[in-house]
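Re: the pair you flagged

First of the two:
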Amino acid sequence: MKKRFLLALLACLCLLLAACSPSSVPEEEVSLPVDSEETVEETPSVEDSGETVFFYVADEAVTFVEFSFHYNEAVDSFLQSDAYLESGLDPDRSLASQQYPGLEMSWEDVFIQQVQDQLYFYLALSQEATEQGYERGERENNYIQEIFAQKRDYAEEMEMTLEELLVQLYGLEMTPEILEKHLERYVLGMGYEDHLRETTVYTDDELAAYYEEHEYAVKVPDGYTVTVRHIQMVNKQSALDVLEKFESGDKSEQSFIDLVVKYSEDTESLEDGGMYADILPQNNVDEYGAFELWAFDAARQPGEYTLLEDETGSDIVYFVEKNESFWKVWSRNTMLDEMLTDIRDQYDFIPVEE
């Protein structure tokens, strides 16, 4: 199931890259390492100065070592995802030497653009958050602590100090203090985005008016979205064993959540008890996979469950509920996206001239 969401995210990225993007960085000036647990590579000398600025967001600088951190995280996350298995990317070859499917760009160029756009977005929101008096909360601070805990564990595994590891991965001038200061800015923007998405309310009339105005530009089928929980497992027999445990109990949603926490291999949804909410199906019914055929069956009822299989493994899926109409979800999400983009655009993206 996670694969579908990652592939959709990557497809959206490709459309954005093809349409428009901030000024790109010349390939010969950027050669960033992949942060993998198998190897620790020396960061190229062009990034070795923490004072070397990659670009500005308004008056805030992003240095090469800060950019290198996010680049490594993006590549490493992709290589550990199900989407990587179908990407055709060879991690043993230079990313700069491999063309991204469907684009006249290398994989390195795509990751550079993705990270650049991501940093522009969140650092702009960070500045807006400061302007509006929004402050970091427990969730954002926990994120920073988790990053440092992961790096300390990795450093211990590599028999290095944290300071040595950060230099090896991100550049000679990277220190725990520099990384922490940068993350404080970055997660402030992340938290502010969550805050706006959670607190901005649109009336049904506003949603209907927006959809009516834009209906010609989108294909949103009639119907509803669904919310499910799932337990992802690579091994089918292990999935069958977990399913048997569920069926031997009270078959409640809480019992399912307990099994998610204990057994699911989808780490991204563990904190939410394996939940994926407001799922939209493919526009074309003929393209429905096993999940869509089951989840969007008109007769599907809350509390029903099934075991689904694909080439990546097995999913035990628990149906939680039917939600709002497609058009409402689409309108709300698109209006929120436009609002956040308008905020970002108030802060200039300024590439550093050669």
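Second of the two:
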Amino acid sequence: MTTSDSSRFPFQLMGSGVPRWSHRDPVECGNPFSRDDPRHAVWEEATARAHKTLTQFDAELETDSHDTQAEAYPVRLVGLAVARFDTWARRGLAVVMSTEGIDDYETWLTNYERHWLEYVAETCPHVDVDKELRHRLAERVESWLASARTRREHEDGDGGRSDVERLTAGR
């Protein structure tokens, strides 16, 4: 069951955030918003953008993969993890519509960050990137939260209407 409360993230979203080296969605439940929730369409559109971003990033990564120096591998590994993290964090930001939503987004981001650190440690145990990845992901969490807060402040200056409310007002 999903929620239509536009101020909070659905339970299915809050409990999901599986890191992946592939393009598979870290939110395993599909679209966590019910069809009657305006965020459903926003989520769908943001998911399509995320997949497009990942495809473009992987094409660039393939072009750059000719660097076979061993010391370059940890740098590329951290870059890949951060790029995947950012791609899905951007999608999450798209459905933040309230102060409560920012709180939920922060919880989701910090869980996703922790899951990435665990995932990299498990899948790449012989590559020493923990300190750098931990630092980079912490920076990204703060950056995404700052974006959410700034966007919310902007929306509060617009009569408190969220992007979804403005988009659906004409329906």
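The two ends are 25 Å apart (CA to CA).

-B.
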